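Form P-L/3: holo structure prediction, ligand 2-acetamido-2-deoxy-beta-D-glucopyranose.
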Amino acid sequence: MLNSLQNQKELILKHWNYISSSLIFILGFCLISFHLNNHNQNEKLFKYFNNTNDWSNLFHYSYNYNVSSSTPTLCIITRIYGPQISYFPIFALAFLHTGLDNIRIYVVNTDRRTDIRQLKQTINFLNKFVSRRDYITLLELGVPPLKNEYGYVMTDRALSYLYNQTNNLSSSCQYIVVTNGDNFYSQIFGKRILPHMKDGKDIIAWDFVSHHSKPQYREIIFQTKHAAPQIIDDGTGKCTPVALKAGSADLGAIAYRLEFLKERNLYFKRSDGSYSSNTDGYFIEQAALRTPASVILKQTLFFHQ
Ligand SMILES: *[C@@H]1O[C@H](CO)[C@@H](O)[C@H](O)[C@H]1NC(C)=O
Ligand SMILES: *[C@@H]1O[C@H](CO)[C@@H](O)[C@H](O)[C@H]1NC(C)=O
Ligand SMILES: *[C@@H]1O[C@H](CO)[C@@H](O)[C@H](O)[C@H]1NC(C)=O
Ligand SMILES: *[C@@H]1O[C@H](CO)[C@@H](O)[C@H](O)[C@H]1NC(C)=O
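OUTPUT (holo model):
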């Protein structure tokens, strides 16, 4: 008994550094969540976070980026509006763990009611947290229109911005993903798509889990009333095998070579000037029609939330 207690004590001492840094890390995250949930009450706390310069030391969490020219840069056009801002840190920090060094996030606000100050503070904090000034950039592309068209008017402005930016060698993106600020990408995302970016493919698509109901993937369950465990399948949260057509693809489940999109002058707006909730499917079909250089990955790399 005594022996085992001593062993435990030794074990704890041995791992104390690890435990204490983990505790600091967890505490840090609790504080961040607390801040994000209580935006107004925690203005002071936020100022403290905002004015502390080197988070990487405190968290023993250092991101050393040697942006290497042999690895293509992937730019994530991130559409966001008010309620998604509190989830955005999870989205943004998860990309750091996907195994791609050359990732840049471009945020575009799609709703005029969004608290831009909160968005800027969140971005500012995250850039400090990862010790990279250019990790996340807020694109200020004018006020979103009253009829926001599912965010696609602003998405098209962001595309136009990136097309124009390709003329500027110092900051161009070789590949882009267009997605929403509350989505989630797998830790193997980078490893899986990198070879195909290096290969110069125009379109890279991957399977995803959708929150939308997919009745066609629902299991047929015959169960008696008292069966254990009870089985529930409402058709949501189903894995969708991706295809380059409307209904079988999702906005965030595809990466495009930026020059390819630019050369074809592709935008989300239809030729009659309209947008709809299926605009992402339309865009994917338009792009797929224009190149045979596409690849479909049969791995689930993305949660559409
Ligand atoms: C946060 O820091 C940036 C510069 O590091 C500064 O411009 C900004 O005003 C600060 N925001 C707040 C709320 O203190
Ligand atoms: C970045 O480059 C420096 C100098 O070449 C090197 O010392 C460092 O280990 C590199 N960091 C990473 C993460 O590759
Ligand atoms: C990109 O350039 C075109 C042509 O100069 C211009 O009309 C357009 O407004 C620019 N887009 C953005 C987002 O600045
Ligand atoms: C090119 O990008 C750099 C860095 O982002 C910026 O300072 C410069 O103004 C840009 N030049 C043009 C012509 O857009």
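COMMENT: Residues 141, 157, 160-161, 164 surround 2-acetamido-2-deoxy-beta-D-glucopyranose (ligand 3) (CB under 6 Å).
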